[in-house]
Structures are given as C-alpha cells and as structure tokens.
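Data availability (excerpt). The following record was deposited with the supplementary files.
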Amino acid sequence: MDTFFSGTRLSDMIRAIRASKTAAEERAVVRKECAAIRASINENEQDYRHRDLAKLMFIHMLGYPTHFGQMECLKLIASTGFPEKRIGYLGLMLLLDERQEVLMLVTNSLKQDLNHTNQYIVGLALCALGNICSAEMARDLAPEVERLLQFRDPNIRKKAALCAIRIIRKVPDLSENFTNPAASLLKEKHHGVLITGVHLCTEICIVSPEALEYFRKKCTEGLVKTLRGIANSPYSPEYDVAGITDPFLHIRLLKLLRILGQGDAEASDRMNDILAQVASKTESNKNAGNAILYECVQTIMSIEENGGLRVLAINILGKFLSNRDNNIRYVALNMLMRALTVDSKAVQRHRATILECVKDSDASIQKRALELIYLLVNENNVKPLAKELIEYLEVSEQDFKGDLTAKICSIVEKFAPEKIWYIDQMLKVLSEAGNYVKEDVWHALIVVITNAPDLHGYTVRALYRALHTSCEQETLVRVAIWCIGEYADLLVNNNGMLELEEPITVTESDAVDVVETAIKHHTSDVTTKAMALIALLKISSRFPSCSERVKSIIGQNKGSFVLELQQRSMEFSSVIQKHQNIRSSLVERMPVLDEATFSGRRAGSLPTAVSTSGKSSLSIPNGVVKAAAPLVDLLDLSSDDAPAPTSSSANFLQDLLGVDLTQPSPHPVSGTMQPSKAGADILLDLLSVGSPAPSSINGDLLSVHAKNAPVATNDTILSSPTAPSSMMDLLDGFEDKVPIYPSIVAFESSTLKIEFNFTKQPENPQATDIVASFTNLTPNVFTDFLFQAAVPKFLQLHLDPSSSNSLTANGNIKQTMRVTNSQHGKKPMVMRMRVGYKIDGKDMLEEGQINNFPREL
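Predicted structure:
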C-alpha cells in the first residue's frame, strides 16, 4: 500500500514534508499527495473531503498550486454539518479571493447560511463574507448583514459590523442602509460590539457627507459620554492593558471624534473637555498610554481652533521627544511639522529639544528633526540656531553632512541679518564641509562679496587664514583663490581693516604661494586649477615684481594633458610676455555682480546663456569635462556693464593676433594709424580673401584708419572683383539654403502665452521642427505644467519633454516637437492643444485650436 493516499492524516503529511532534507524531496512528497487528492476528488469520496481540503490548505501555504481543489470548498460549504462547513469556509477564504469567478457559485450558500438557525454557522458565513466579499456579493447580501446587526448574540453583531465595513468599502452607495443600525451600536455595553460599531460609523462618515452630518447631530454627545465613562472607569481585568481600560476602544473613539469635529465648531466645543481630560490624565510611561495620547493630539490638532488645547497637545509632543523610544520621537517630529502651520509659537518653545534630535544617532530622526528646525528658523532666532548647527557640523557623520550643509547654507542665505554675518557663517561652513557645498551656493557667496566693497579686505584676509587650515575643502579653495585674484592688493596692504580683525602680515610672495599650492595640490580638479591660473594672471598685474615667478608657474601647465589648462597656460603666458599694454585692461577688477539678476537666474525665472544646474558642463575635445557655469557667471559675459578697453589698448586686434599690423607714419594724426600692406594681407588671409588693392580697413573692426583714404566696408570687400570664390563659399547658403519662417503666437489668454518658432531642413521638407515657448503672464507659479497636442491623420507629431514642469511667475519654459506633413504642399498644418497646470493646488485647463501656421510649412 502506498504511503500517501487519500486517507493519510494531515499530521502525517506535515511530518513527511518536514522530514524532507532537500527541496526536491519536499516537491516529491507534495506531488504524490496532490495526486492522491486528485484521485479522491475524481472518485467523489465524501468521507475524506474535509481532510483533503485541510491538506490542500497546508500545501497552498507552502506556495504550491491548489486550484484543482477550489470546487471542493463549495461542496463542503453546501453540506449540512458544522465541521464540514467550517473547513469549507476556511478553504474558501484561503484558496480563493474576490477576483475568482467561482465565487459567484457560493453566493446562494452564503445567503442560506446567513439565515441559518445555528448561530455558529451564521458566524462562519459572516467571517467568509467579510474576507472575500466582492461588489456583486455585497449588493446581494447587504440586507442579510443589515438584519444581523440587530441579532441577539453580541458575537454575531460584532461580526456583522465588520462585514458591513467590507461591504461599504466595496459599494459606498450602500452606506445609507447601515447608518441607523450603526448608530444604534454606539449604545452597546459590550466592548467588542462597541468598537466595531465605532469603526463602522467612522467608515460611513468617510464615504457619506449626509451620514457625517447625521452623526454630528445625533451621536456626538453619546460618544463624548462613552469616552468619559471609559476614561474614568475603575480597574477591569477583562479590558485592562498596562493599567489602561481598553486602549483600542479609546483610540477608535478619538478617531471618530476627530472626523466629527473637523470643520464643525459646535461639535468641537462639545468634545473639548473630554479631550483635555484624556490628554492630562493618561499616563505616558507605558506604550498603551502613549498611543492614546498621540491619537488625542491628532484629534486636538484636527478639530476647530482651541488655543489652550493645542498648546497642551504640543507640550505632549515635546515630552514625546524626550522618550527613549525612537518610534515615539519620530511620530512626534512628524506631528510637530503639521502643528507648525497651526501654532508656530507653541512649537518654538521646544526648539532646544528638537535641536538635540538633530544630533541623534538614528538617521531617520536626524533628517526629520533637521527639516523641522529648517521650518522653525526666522529672523529672530537664525543666529543661535545657525551657530548650533554649524558646531554640530564639525562632529556630524559623513552620511549626514550633505543634508546638514544644504540646510545651513539655505538658512544663512535666507535669513542673514547682515552681509558680514553671512560671509562669516559661510566661511565656517566652507571650512568644515566645503566639499558638500553645491555650486550655486558658493556662486551666490561670491556675488554677495562683490556687492560688499567695504568687506573686500576683511573677506580676503579671512579666506587666506581659512585656507591654511582647511586646504582639503575644494569649494573653500575656489572661493579663496577667486578673492585673492581680485583683491590681492587689499590682502598685502591690509586695506579695509575692521576693528574686530587681528592684524595679519602677508607679502606678495605669500599670495602667490597660496595660489601655486592650489594648482599643484593633488586633489584640485580642472575648475579649481583653471581659476587659479586666472588668479595668477591677475596677481601678475597687481604685483609687477612677481611677474616672472607667475609666468614660470603658469608655464608649467603648457604641457598639461588637460586641454583646458594647456590652452589657458599658453594664452596667459603670451599675455604676460608680449602684451603688457593690454594686461591691465584684461585683468581689471570684476564689476559688481547684480544680486537680483543672479537670484533670478538661480530661481529659473530669467534666461541665462549657460545653465547653472548641477549638470552644467561642457565636453572638451580631449574628453576632459570643464565646468562652465562658475567662470561664465562670474565673468558675467551677458552683461552690458563689462569694462571697455582703455586707451592703452587702442590697437586691440594687433595684440590679439600677436602681429604688427601697423608701421610708423611720418605724419601721425591723433587717434589714427596707417595700415601696412602686410597687416592687411594677414587679415585678408584669415578671412580666406586674396590680396586686394591697397585700401583701408574699417576702423570699428581694427581700431585703425587710413589717412585721406575711403573706408572699405564689409560690403565693399565682399563685392570686390579681386575677392575669389572662397569667400563666397565661406558665407554661402545662410540665406538661400535655410529658409526662415516667421514665428507665430499660437495661443494667448489672460494667464498664458504660447509662441511657436519653426525650422526646416532642406533635405526633408515634410518635417518641421517647432520650439514652443510658454510664458506665464501672472504673478502665480504654475506647477505640474503639461502641454498636450493632437493632429489630423495626415500629420505625425512627436513631442519632447518640456524644459520644466514648473512655470514661475512671469517666467518662460520651452518644449520642442516635430511635425511631419505627409500632404506637404497640399494640406496646411493644423493642431489642437490642451494645457493643464495647477495654481496653489487648484487644477487649471486651457484648450484651443491652432490654425495660423505658415502655409509653406
């Protein structure tokens, strides 16, 4: 006889499976047992049906397929005996779920069992329905469940209430059928029935506004009375948990009161006294008491305003912060962040405790406390809070330094009372965690420094001192060498000394030493070395006595494998050696950088030639990455305020090319020079033009004029018969081969303007590239910005992502698209568009049709 057959007991099968030493042995045991069960099912052996299903449930829990036994559940449910029904319903809940079509066959059996005379069978049916009820079953069986809410046995009423919760979640429209029965359950004395009744009322209030008003008017007083009775009840061993009577019922009642009091002042007034009693009398030395207090705080913060209660609630959260349990402290920090919008003054009183949480060993508590401290900072407390955070920055863990540094920089920049304090704090941050400071932060620091002329000397001296103690911080080195390059004379001469400063002696050679160290340091990257070369070039102009040494240091990079450094070294060496007359103009002190313009670019509301995002880099031909944002932004090349060349550099092009374009004139005229033939030939060779007849060249271009000679303009040169075709080839095709199409205003409303700019490639006339420009005409910020478009079938549309999904006030974003017209020349382009965005969380939608495309597209 086979070891495994239909009559094998469940315990024997479990013993055999546990005795398996390998997964293969276990699969063999399960496979044999499943085969025996299938044989028993085929033979319709009723005596072993409940045993087979019990074994199938165990096999199912092991993760093996048991779908072939689902019908056995229905057969057992349809039997008359309680043991068979119990196994059948257990199998139904375990082996099936609400998505199985087989469940349709069990609805009738459930209905019969819900009306059964045996209350235990009724309980089985309610348990099954509460676990696997689908929307169809809920509609069919809701009347039976509603009736059972008035059943004589409390256990049946409790199960019926739980089943009603499932029905309401599946079909919210049925909530009105359960409103009155649920209200009657709130008067129950049996705690099991009462807690399920409160839960049922909570679910009904969530899905039905009408029921919510009904419970507010009819049940608020009763709920307050019930909560007061439980809070003041004597010791009851049946419901006692850690010295507190039924904390689970406490929490359920508080949740329901929170829903009833939210948005209703009258209901909130009724529950103020009991909430104050629960908050003040509940013991907090046990976890059950803390759970009740937390739920009470949530209720107080959600109902209508009561200043005294809210202060009491925030004080409870302050006590939670001193708890040794990390979970309690974390939920307290979360709750305080919500409370901050309600009563910031009460939260401010716990600032010291919150600050201690920033120094906690738990990473989650650290980050949450830091976010809360960031929200607590204002103009009045920024100095002590920044001091505490910077002091902790010195001893904080490496994983936390990045977040902490970002928050400190943001706080200091946002709430700085004066520029000298801002500079001091930023220097401390750069000295302690400069490698964690983002680019836009130290760019902003340099902008502030340039706008504080009375602090230039103080700043460069402070940076010089810091550089000797924290040379490993890359960002500190960059800011320091930038300032030394600009204000080296103030550093050496001790100009602009403040009373709080200590005197410092720095020679010209010392200033060069600092920058040389930055270039040669093994950790310095390309950007730092490039900035150091610029600083050396400026120092050579400030301190002529150091020119030879600076030239030597710069020349050491002529053989650098980094093309950027090699190019700078060659150019700067040439400037120092050959172009003394223009060096002072090239390295004049930087003009004051406009703070408002920089802030606008940083926020993205103003266009900028170079992106200042973290990904702003240019690819150098030899593969080295050059950070573009710092140098371009600092030089402010897009500004019209750049200093013009002085009279010492009258013939700028001559110095730029490194050749002598002029010769001495026997009769010099003020402000003019006689161009030589050789110089003209060089310039024309540069433009790929043959040797023309001697003529003067436009003075605006070369800063030279011919005496008593007509000026040859660009048009004259291009139309000259002596100019070969190579010049025309150089400029050929810019007008004829790339047609220019006028831009159009595709859509305009009171809030938004959309413009389209078009380009087409001559080799593909059917395709049109469109750059859509979206302009916000309001002072509000558009968030979740989304542009959608649709075209007819003869057009194909490809949309690229927009440059941003947030459109700042009076700002601009762009989005590119390509439209391919299969009927080009026959049918014009047309487009339907829709724009969606949010203003202060409110959804906005604008639609329109674009018919004014140029016909030639």
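Summary of structural features: DSSP finds 38 helices and 14 strands in the chain.
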